[in-house]
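Morning, I've got a small favour to ask if you have a moment. You're getting the sequence in one-letter code plus the fold written as tokens. Thanks so much in advance, here it is:

===
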Amino acid sequence: QVHVVESGGGLVQPGGSLRLSCAASGRTASKYDMAWFRQAPGKMREFVAAIRYSGSGTNYADSVKGRFTISKDSDKTTAYLQMNSLKPDDTAVYYCAARDPSSSTWEYWGQGTQVTVSS
């Protein structure tokens, strides 16, 4: 069982930056792939970025490539999402998820953190 908690959301102006954190806890937390999803009002939740448990492989949605960077800390239990050049369209609740590397399903989810991009 893995428990994930997001932090770092807030209000930022267009063109600004924000960094989200996702802390995973549990006996095997360092062995899990981690990802970020987001859901804007009236829209379905969408994939943003993912990183392998080892921190060596990453994947991004086309809409955030070149602007967002996902990473893990040295003990592999915290994932970060560095968001630069933010746009109003990036406004959403951002969710962190974790899964066993052998699974195709994101099994563990956080409660979400609000990101609002507005002037």
Summary: The mean pLDDT is 94. The chain is about 0% helix and 50% strand.
